[in-house]
Amino acid sequence: MNPDAERDYGDFVVARSQALCRFAYLLCGDWHRAEDAVQTAFAKLYVAWNRIRDRGAVEPYVRRMVVTTIIDEGRLARFRREAVSGRVPEAPAGTDLAAAAGDRLTVLAALARIPPRQRAVLVLRYWEDQSVEQVADLLGCSQGTVKSQAARGLQTLRGLLDDEVTAQV
Questions:
Q1: What's the average model confidence in pLDDT over 21-49?
Q2: How many other C-beta atoms are found inside a 10 Å radius of the C-beta of residue 87?
Q3: Are 46 and 108 contained in the same domain?
Q4: If you average pLDDT over residues 79-93, what whole number do you get?
Q5: What's the structural domain count of the chain?
Q6: What's the CA gap between 103 and 1, in Å, rounded?
Q7: What's the confidence (pLDDT) of residue 91?
Q8: Does some domain include residue 88?
Q9: Which of 26, 27, 45, 111 is most buried as measured by Cβ atoms within 10 A of its Cβ?
Q10: How large a percentage of the chain has pLDDT more than 70?
């Protein structure tokens, strides 16, 4: 890679790594897995960097790699012997812990219990505020699939949150 391209790549990584880690965390609910997924996506991006002609298309390309990495990792998780911890994940550096509310943790815990594909659709549509068309393009599926996954995901999320509220009362 020539020095200018390497500098452009480095600038992109520095500028987007925190936002992509937050995005990945919402998809998987674990800061370590999120950072690993983003790191994997950046490694794949480095290999493809010289082939990318439209630098404006880099962000969606990397987001798709992150989503795919997390979904694929979830499929392979059943073959691993690691146990998932019941502890709350670590907060990212620079986060004001006093401002974090219990509701946010409740929603994140419920979101973590939703199937990965539905979770990806919910995060992309409602957290990242992307259109149905953008999500369908990013996930490589039809717009109807995005709509049905969003509807099912919201229904599941509502049910989980209702159960949580009922359990707290």
A1: 91
A2: 6
A3: no
A4: 64
A5: 2
A6: 46
A7: 62
A8: no
A9: 27
A10: 82
pLDDT at 142: 93
End-to-end CA distance of the chain: 59
What residue has token string 């520095």? 14
Which two tokens mark 21?
A: 């880690």
Distance, CA of 125 to CA of 105 (rounded, Å): 20
The sign one gets for the Cα dihedral 39, 44, 47, 49 is negative
Q: Domain span at residue 46?
A: 1-78
CB neighbours of residue 154 within 10 Å: 16
In the predicted model, is pLDDT for residue 98 greater than 80? Answer: no
Q: Residue 26 belongs to a domain with what CATH number? A: 1.10.1740
Comparing 15-29, 80-94, 114-128, the range with the smallest average pLDDT is 80-94
Distance CA 138, CA 62 (A): 10
Which amino acid is present at 89?
P
